[in-house]
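Recap from last week: sequence in, structure out.
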Amino acid sequence: MRVNSQMPVGRLAEHLESLSRERIWFAIVAATAGIALADYIIPAVGFAPLYMPVICAAGWALGAREGYFVAVIAAFLAVAPSLHHIAALSVPLLALSIGVRVVTFLFIAAAIISFRRSYDRELFHAHRDRMTGTLNKEVFERRCARMIEDARHIGQTLLLIILDLDDFKAVNNREGHRAGDEVLQTFAGGAASIMRREDLIGRIGGDEFALLVRVPSMVEGQGFARDIHTRLSAVLAQSRYPVTCSMGGLLIPPHASGSASDLMHAADQAMYRAKNSGKNAIAIDRAGEAEAPAEARIAAKRQEGLV
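Predicted structure tokens:
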């Protein structure tokens, strides 16, 4: 379920998503006040229906509680201009007039809130690998590219990791696909438990996973990589099936060049080097080293304390 960005409602939804909650509240309050003022000055026109898109915007962008709150306020404001005309009505009729508007506006809020929940649920599943709950390959690569670009602007060092489960196919062939699924889910759950909220984790192949982690520096990034490998190895050791993991790590300084795809390839090459060295191993490279002379690479590592 996706909102078509080419339609007016799709463009409005995208615009709302790009705004902060403070700006959305300001827009809703300003629109509500403008409609109320227009309805008071020219009551014969009947501006009350214009509250409906305001209610929809509140329910979509701010949440259920805020959507219902705006709906109730809008209902009372919609009745206010005509109060002097119905002052002679009995209390029950006045209450009925207000109640009809409250119920109508609350129904509109409930409908848009329900749609937003369905949209969020479908969007979540569309971004996730169904087996492991991690990001799927396409979404990981897209978010990875954005995170790398952001890191360049703010001077942040990153650690890109590619992980491959050793002997996973042997487990699949010997124990069956159910056992293989259990290994994947155990590994993904363990990886998710040690990652921070801002880190990325995705499944990019049958038994391959990728991580993108913010690290304080190039030197500390190497320690981060080794710690992650140790902790993930401990997760796999608790599994009922004998599986280890090979890790390729790529430290990405803020000034590193190359696209996200190039950096993913470099981390993948490091992973294969680790795997070919005997499995259950780790290889860590620095982005851009492949283009530098060997002597320059060694000197740079000594200067930064990596060797």
